[in-house]
Amino acid sequence: MKRIALAVGMIIGLLAIGLYAIEAGATTIDILDVGQTGTATPDGVIFLGDPNPTSPSTGTGVFEPFVRIQEPSKHRDGLENGFNTDANHPEINFDTKDGSSWTRSVQFGELGVIDGYYVLQLDANQTSKSTAADNQILITQMEIFIGDGLSNPEASNTGISGTGYSGTLFDGISNGDNLLGQFPVWSLNDATHDWDVLLQASICDSNGQCGSGHGDLDVFIPQSLLGIHDPTDNFVLYTEYAGANDGFEEWRFNSASSVPEPGMVALLLAGLPALGLFRRLRLR
Question: Is the pTM of this model over 0.85?
Fold first, then answer.
């Protein structure tokens, strides 16, 4: 019976990925292997498949996220969304998973800049082997809000609330989304472009260096894209996913206190073609 339920769940998740990709008519970026990279938006945001192993061990405590999102089992349909906040109860902001220090507000001044980029890293959790189709998840929206007073906005679990995030879920191109009246400073989908990111979760380049707690995707956001803000302003990341079928999706950032040596991003991206790991994004 458990096997049948799992199989049905996998089918629903795959149908959700296909359904929303088709309905939105989005341009899809495939990140299905370690080292696969692509520039998604006209503003120069870079996506890179990267297990970013920190040690042989895994877990949230190793990854140190600032937001975790997991679809509640009571309405499991493969779709989930949410954003980081200081709200403190089990299910907050749609599917945001409360976790004390693992889901929290972030001040803009906490983010570190590496070679002119802010770097966000996603650890996605899906079922099956790392190379299987049911291990894939589709990121249908990412939005960044920066402003004062965004540390504790709440939204309804059953719909969009005027007290928190206001927008249209899974609608492809979004225009007019806001958080407490503030519009995003950057969006994966907006009035001018419509993108999805198809990610192979749990990608790894060596045994024991994949799975929960190691990450799957690096997102490089040009510093100039987010603009100049007060260090105490809140940084909020909102995300939507289709095809979610397992544990929570979690994000972390490179902090201002742990920025690598200058030139690391340039060396990484420049070295990929020579290593034979660079693959152009596939548009469809």
Answer: no
